[in-house]
Amino acid sequence: MPESFAPPARTLMGPGPSPVSPDVLAALARPTIGHLDPAFVDLMDETKGLLQETFLTQNRLTMPVSGPGTAGMEACVDNLVEPGTTVVVCRNGVFGDRLRQMVERAGGVAVVVDAEWGRAVPPETLADALVEHPEAEVVAFVHAETSTGALSDAETLARIARDHGCLVVADTVTSLGGVPVRVDDWGLDAVYSGTQKCLAAPPGLSPVTFSDRALERMDARETPVQSWFLDVSLVARYWNADGAKRAYHHTAPVNMIYALHEALRRLQGEGLEAAWARHRRMHRALAAGLDALGLAFVVPEAERLPQLNAVWIPDGVDDAATRRRLLDEHGLEIGGGLGDLAGRAWRIGLMGEGARPGPVLACLGALEAVLDRSGGVEAAEPLLDAVAA
């Protein structure tokens, strides 16, 4: 009989998952109860309220989808897109293209607005596309493009979309909890995220929220949603979004919802604005250290996502071999590039519990050792000392 699995100690500084606190891990280990148990139903309601606070929304349909962030993406797309629906998709990385693929799989017509990888989506390109395609009904974009570390101006993109009468689908998988996400103030209609990034919970759930405008569109559908499991009108009954009697949909991942509840409780205890500020401070310290090591950022500073730092791999440095040494010799995980950046860039995460002084210094120290360079820790320490003070 195989021995029980004992995971190695790792410092998770990749694009996800992020480190999970002992309190959240302990929540996972609590006794499993039934997914219709009255005590669990109360926990569902609390979790919904915490998600509304985190998304900064009053949307009655706010809940975690059972599945990772990609499941949330598919839920938002599949429920709003019918065969023939024209959707303007902003693409500046891998996950923008995944949105395009999902639109087309749902039978929609994707009008792609391309932006340079490593750059934010230029709002004027979206505005031009909507003028050229007045038939468009939905605009979809990635707020924080995990494949490049670029942060787009979600508020402006959403305003342009709404000015043209479009619903807004926003990917906040890597932004929620790390930078401002203001669903109601910005007029976002279908928003999804993931638990394993700045929310600092294990992977496996995708928080989503839908505006009343989105619900009206779903109610007016002429065709059924292509996925029964992700049909929000069915799942919503289980999460009691309309105040009616709660109805069984599927066996919810009970212990994962324990963990999400604990992670959200901790986030609200810290305060959203404090969490956003912490991610910014840790980014500034890490950026100073990376600069001292001669590692240049892919994304211009004004468009940079604090919690996902993409840097160019130095000439003559083997990507895979270096990341393997970091893992084997220092227990440090960073990410390789995706798509156009594969083999050309590293992605260093600063998410959730990873956005703390200890992981920042561990990352820079490991890079110093493996790259045989110095100065990274020394450059970062004064900024971290200022935080401690």
Automatic annotation (TrEMBL):
Residues making up the signal peptide according to the UniProt record: none
Q: Which organism is it from?
A: Rubrivirga litoralis
Keyword ATP-binding carried by entry: no
The record ties this protein, via InterPro entries, to: Aminotrans_V_dom (IPR000192), Aminotrans_V_PyrdxlP_BS (IPR020578), PyrdxlP-dep_Trfase (IPR015424), PyrdxlP-dep_Trfase_major (IPR015421), PyrdxlP-dep_Trfase_small (IPR015422), SP_NH2Trfase/AEP_transaminase (IPR024169)
**Cofactor(s) the record lists:** pyridoxal 5'-phosphate
Keywords in UniProt for this one?
A: Aminotransferase, Pyridoxal phosphate, Transferase
> Would you identify the family this protein belongs to, as annotated?
Belongs to the class-V pyridoxal-phosphate-dependent aminotransferase family.
Q: Where is the Aminotransferase class V domain?
A: 33-337
What is this protein identified as?
A: Alanine--glyoxylate aminotransferase family protein
Annotated Gene Ontology MF terms?
Answer: transaminase activity
Q: Which domain of life is it from?
A: Bacteria
Pfam families, alphabetically?
A: Aminotran_5
